[in-house]
Fold this protein.
Amino acid sequence: MPETIIYEQPLNERIRTFLRLEFLFLRLDTALTSNSELKNREAIDCLLSILSVFERSDLKSEIIKELERLISTLSALENSPGVDKAALEDLLTSLDHILDSLYANKSAIGQKLRDNDFLYSIRQRSSIPGGTCDFDLPSYHYWLQHTSDETRKQQLLTWFEPFSSVRAAIDITLKLIRQSTGFTPITAEAGFYQHSLDSSQANQLIRVKVPRTSEFYPEISGGKHRFTIRLMRFDIKQRAQQIEEDIALALSCCAM
């Protein structure tokens, strides 16, 4: 187990959406590790949540814009001293392939799933607490009980396939952003830290690293001009209070 925990705060709506999708993709991965009924239900819930995120009609274009921006930024480094040109070329090739696959898909991402009556019936009931139980959706119960484990697993993978290029794009984007800047030591005086950002930089993400043994967590808020960190003492029985001690932390302001 790592000795530290990293807390992240997106600085724009695009990265906020990417982080939410990353979270849902990882949940789906975990759900697909088992073919139990509950895990299959969790996989469906994750799939429908991912589909809901893509109700934004401009999300595909946002992903494409971010990839094109990264390709432009990285291409400018080709003649910089000390750059591993072979590694950079491989990275640019990967980005180009992902971008091509997104352009090749002319329809809205997940449109076939929206048109699927079976998934639509589950989606309609999902907003109701317990609304997908057996008596509400007998067709869902039938699919879970009568379809073989392997068939259900394959069906879930088929439903997820329209999002594979999107996931690849988001994974590589967030990886590059996170790796763009290392961690530097800071001190939160009386549990508080504030920092102004250079508006000429493409600031994307704030990352705060704290020891796993800490009895506090950071509340991060900010935008493109500045951000603040408040260290809050965790107490499950009452409202968290800001700590009063000076605390050493590690901070990364990711800009790319």
Q: What stands out?
A: The longest helix spans residues 85-104. DSSP finds nine helices and eight strands in the chain.
